[in-house]
Amino acid sequence: MSSMVVKLVPLEVGFLRKHEVKRLNPRQGSGCVLSVRASVASKTLEYPKTNREQLDKDVRIGVLGASGYTGAEIVRLLANHPHFGITLMTADRKAGQSFGSVFPHLFTQDLPDMVAVKDADFSSVDAVFCCLPHGTTQEIIKGLPKGLKVVDLSADFRLRNINEYEEWYGQPHKAPELQKEAVYGLTEVLRYEIQNARLVANPGCYPTSIQLPLVPLIKAHLIETKNIIIDAKSGVSGAGRGAKEANLYTEIAEGLHSYGITKHRHVPEIEQGLSDASNSEVTVSFTPHLMPMSRGMQSTIYVEMAPGVNVNDLYDYLNSTYQDEEFVRLLEKGVVPHTQHVRGSNYCLMNVFQDRILGRAIIISVIDNLVKGASGQALQNLNLMMGYPENTGLQYQPLFP
Amino acid sequence: MSSMVVKLVPLEVGFLRKHEVKRLNPRQGSGCVLSVRASVASKTLEYPKTNREQLDKDVRIGVLGASGYTGAEIVRLLANHPHFGITLMTADRKAGQSFGSVFPHLFTQDLPDMVAVKDADFSSVDAVFCCLPHGTTQEIIKGLPKGLKVVDLSADFRLRNINEYEEWYGQPHKAPELQKEAVYGLTEVLRYEIQNARLVANPGCYPTSIQLPLVPLIKAHLIETKNIIIDAKSGVSGAGRGAKEANLYTEIAEGLHSYGITKHRHVPEIEQGLSDASNSEVTVSFTPHLMPMSRGMQSTIYVEMAPGVNVNDLYDYLNSTYQDEEFVRLLEKGVVPHTQHVRGSNYCLMNVFQDRILGRAIIISVIDNLVKGASGQALQNLNLMMGYPENTGLQYQPLFP
Amino acid sequence: MSSMVVKLVPLEVGFLRKHEVKRLNPRQGSGCVLSVRASVASKTLEYPKTNREQLDKDVRIGVLGASGYTGAEIVRLLANHPHFGITLMTADRKAGQSFGSVFPHLFTQDLPDMVAVKDADFSSVDAVFCCLPHGTTQEIIKGLPKGLKVVDLSADFRLRNINEYEEWYGQPHKAPELQKEAVYGLTEVLRYEIQNARLVANPGCYPTSIQLPLVPLIKAHLIETKNIIIDAKSGVSGAGRGAKEANLYTEIAEGLHSYGITKHRHVPEIEQGLSDASNSEVTVSFTPHLMPMSRGMQSTIYVEMAPGVNVNDLYDYLNSTYQDEEFVRLLEKGVVPHTQHVRGSNYCLMNVFQDRILGRAIIISVIDNLVKGASGQALQNLNLMMGYPENTGLQYQPLFP
Amino acid sequence: MSSMVVKLVPLEVGFLRKHEVKRLNPRQGSGCVLSVRASVASKTLEYPKTNREQLDKDVRIGVLGASGYTGAEIVRLLANHPHFGITLMTADRKAGQSFGSVFPHLFTQDLPDMVAVKDADFSSVDAVFCCLPHGTTQEIIKGLPKGLKVVDLSADFRLRNINEYEEWYGQPHKAPELQKEAVYGLTEVLRYEIQNARLVANPGCYPTSIQLPLVPLIKAHLIETKNIIIDAKSGVSGAGRGAKEANLYTEIAEGLHSYGITKHRHVPEIEQGLSDASNSEVTVSFTPHLMPMSRGMQSTIYVEMAPGVNVNDLYDYLNSTYQDEEFVRLLEKGVVPHTQHVRGSNYCLMNVFQDRILGRAIIISVIDNLVKGASGQALQNLNLMMGYPENTGLQYQPLFP
């Protein structure tokens, strides 16, 4: 049919096909990462795949638990990564399906079909992103070849204290030996350790947004560690893609509510990080709120400053800490961070404000919970672990509006 | 044309007209307010107006500044009010227009066209809702006939201290005599004074959601008044209908941000109310956040309990305070208030939670900012001022989803 | 604790309780429906329920399948109904639970706990709203006492042709005898039949929005019945409260898509209604779209006018048809219906526009899919069936913004 | 591989590789790990700018009217473009301001401050994107140096017939000579002409989504050109960033409506394109709808197929037309395009469906109105005009959820 129609109704000159244009193109193949695929595509006549050369990349990547939002976000970020190519994807309940059938927005990517994790051939990969639910992750990672680099996006290796893990997650830790090896992946804080790690426990979204401003201020003894009050707001994608009544559009749109008051599982992770920074036990007030939006997270943090410290001291110290960072940015004085301004990007924007109550300050930090709060930071970490510049593949600017 | 077509194409039997049905109706006109219009409509053949008998109501109402969202909300609430009928509407920039052309969702209501406030005939009204912007309101109310009952939804009469007014609003108070007369309209707290008032300053939305839980707890000395930290979240309708870039759909959807940090004009109103309750000067930390939703407001309030007091004491005292109230409701222990659960209604839902930090509690209250936070409470107040049950016309259940 | 605190910390004068106010109230109990509860409440000291006098109402109502959105909407609408009181609620999977635990926004209503339908005592009710899924409804209604009035919101009795039912729903009709008795509940079109019906098949949301404008125009031979093209848009609540991945907030927000192209089960219902009107078999093009909103439905209908007919003829005829209707409204010429302008109300707004293509017209109608498209029209029908004015309890104005 | 790339594409000194960084950077923080920008920053100690080497890029770009959404989108897309660097930005009302103050989400970009267009130095640029409002654009482009390549995103050069321009835009065309030179920038249809153009009139968003499927089908005589009915749905960003009451969050959220019925200014552009394709005058029915979402556009197109043609013929022909295209994609049979699946990307997804009415088909196409519908296609065109692969800088995958 197709050829018949082409004969009967020849295309106008104006309807030049892409591969014909390519031959006319004097500057073709100019070597930039983003244009490589065009020249590949111009050599073939089959349906073009934007990312077909996965197998030719330097580092072969596996994505375990690829059928959730963090898995999809890994794929989106790697689409323009010059060195990492996905060669393995697992998803137990969707085994045998193409990734594009599960996430149609990425159907143009040339990816392996998903397999059950028990059927995965790990000899084909150099590193894995593990996007599995907590609880099952410890055993799976324990079973992986020891040579693999692993970034685990679950909570299973974030808590050093395995008793605390059991307390908050309701089951004993199943890989205590690995736990000792795991490095906590808060990139800007533990960059050196991450560079040398084999297994990185990627931080939770709330803990990332909270520790990035608080850890340096606590280390520098600029704020008190008692009565730290964190009012956090998150988009719904943090809850994942599981079908739950509570996360239906109709239940979420045009309204908000607190949840997990005092009981959210990110509490011990936050307190571990802040306790490390202060060399003392820190207990925080942490109240998350579910927002009518898909992506984005803000932590509004109410703190008491140390005696003699003022808000300019906090500002200056955060500035000195982060002035060379690409992804963690202190805004100009008085400028309020908006979650819209980081959507789809790996940035963490923050600022600090004088409170009306003497001696108190308000710290605000925003991230995209799926990027800096999950898959973006995971990629940042794996870049480091594999010896690449940590921003490789991560320089997406925020999508607004 | 219409009659011609009817002749040419007679209606089937099944296409019985409403007024014909009425005659068949054995229980017609059973006296309830909600069915009055049907029987009226059945006697006429003109285009039916749901609320045509405004002039026959007991109390003639004027709405000043009717072209904003709080004005529209007054109209919506009065649509089923058995005693209040709107006989005057003003809107300077929309003078001469019909209300239905400005708010098409209310076009079925039989209302007077809008006039400029300077052209208004106040002899035709018994009471007014004043929905004008702050700053202009004092002079206009000063010019009204003294016999009129007034509920002012602006901020112009909320602050007893006229110096404080000048400090926060940047201009001298223009009606200091009236200020002395004005009663603050937080219904459940000042019900008796409101009943006997002529001029009521209707509270702001944030102050309503904050004072309803805090005032009784402070009066009862159950919480400390230092370090009260309020993280408040509001829908966009609170910003009104003015065309501002910052409130465009594209700027608001799928994101959130803090605003007016330490400088929001509701601060002195909140502090006035809490200071009254404690008989001492209270300074609060108050940080409002703009949410991607049209209606709804939550205040998440972090407090320190008085020595020896625990969270059950707070719960029990709020319960004893509000157990007979129709609109202010303490939820069952552990149940989290959602803003969706008050949308379109005059309810304030609240609850109190133990914090992780010893001695602290978290109080959450939610309202619809346009109803209990504005027009609903205004109507509740005018009901009282005119001697009607305060819930008259206000028993709309929340619209969810 | 409560009484102790009251003793220890006496309330200020300003903190007058509601029941005290009532005694001061000179106009109390003026007999209006909306204020009845206030006077009841004033006599009791227990926790007030807005709608406690269900048992005293004239008509005892059962709601079968009360745990879905249409069930909740029935409860919302009946909250202010002067004659209908809910005395039975069923929900098989939530049997034993209170309605307020399933729909917290209605927790103030005094309602019976939900029971399994098999345990329901139908001797306690005069009429039922049946909000069950299609497929199970026929047998349940077949088993009800014959004296009960029934409005069925499912699709199970909408198609007169039981073969067509089997074809579209994939199972044989289980109550063909009842099918003969069932009256299709498109109120404005079949008002007389509905008044005399025992079992009403309440129309689907799409069919309601489409038939209200098209049926009269087809009956009057003003439009052609071939090539009627309907592009319909619906909010997500039409999909119900079941937990489905496709209806998660994250999947729906900020995007739209067509679904059920040519295969939506409302097709045979629409075609049945239009075929009846034209006395010939009508096939339509019907493409529904899922919108990022909870409530609201628009049908944009592209039609060819009959020879010699122009758009003014359509306008005039719709005007003559609906000018006496309370809920179906033809807007002024040129005014575009918005779904926001019917949210929460029982209105259907419509208008008709000249197309650019000669001889064609564009008809737009909007409804709230949960009110006029479901529970509102169901109540309108039961009002008629029970001999009350059909607008009883339905005069809610739209909620905007 | 890494060293090979270094040979083929020599890195700047600033492009320190990760393994070098490690040696230089024994602990964290001070040095920086972040490719070009970071290492530059580490030498200067200034605040790091992600894209500071604009001046070193091959092609110097001006953005006229940079303060609107399409201007911001150009900046976002160019952030990772290897050859285009922005050296001039104009915005008359925001002259003197930094771009980051107007669009904080792009504050990390190193961009020139905005100037008034009259003060712009065009000797510093090789090409411009013109994002000005229609009406003012013709004169400004007329005044530009003749050597500049221009992609105009306004409507000012889209209509070849200047009388038609005057009729729809209410003012005479001010640059009729330039109009003759302008090439219509529908890339996949007019690629060859665009490659050789100096002035490209970038298509409107609706016309892009409509012509991409219809032009080839009309050229191939597979569909009738009479009675083409287009029901189009757009996100709000298409209305721009101007402060208008109608586009406030509160007016748009949770609702939809038709607008510009038969009168939308994209009508003559659509009809011009379809008339060209058919060599006859085509009149379409076009009804746009405003959706509660920021980005995204769907055109649902109802067509009559030519005699003897079936829906598989349409599918096969679209497949043969677009199978080599990177950005225009025909989905697998039966798969429905969603606007969410193109958000933030330059893709146009389409598919074709059999209608219920014999001989008719339904065509659906979706784009992101700000990318393929505006700035993305503009960049695609300028890539071609400057001799680069057309996908350069455009390979962003869609952002979902």
UniProtKB/TrEMBL annotation, chains A, B, C, D:
- What biological-process GO terms show up in the record? L-arginine biosynthetic process
Catalytic machinery residues: C205
Under CDD domains, the record lists: AGPR_1_C, AGPR_1_N
Provide the alphabetized UniProt keywords.
Amino-acid biosynthesis, Arginine biosynthesis, NADP, Oxidoreductase
Reactions performed catalytically? N-acetyl-L-glutamate 5-semialdehyde + phosphate + NADP(+) = N-acetyl-L-glutamyl 5-phosphate + NADPH + H(+)
Q: Which InterPro entries match?
A: AGPR (IPR050085), AGPR_AS (IPR023013), AGPR_dimerisation_dom (IPR058924), AGPR_type-1 (IPR000706), NAD(P)-bd_dom_sf (IPR036291), Semialdehyde_DH_NAD-bd (IPR000534)
EC number(s)? Answer: 1.2.1.38
Q: Boundaries of each Semialdehyde dehydrogenase NAD-binding domain copy? A: 60-197
Give the EC class as a word.
Answer: oxidoreductase
Q: Which family does it belong to?
A: Belongs to the NAGSA dehydrogenase family. Type 1 subfamily.
Q: Which HAMAP family match?
A: ArgC_type1
Annotated protein name in UniProt: Probable N-acetyl-gamma-glutamyl-phosphate reductase, chloroplastic
Native organism is Canna indica (Indian-shot)
Upper classification of the organism: Eukaryota, Viridiplantae, Streptophyta, Embryophyta, Tracheophyta
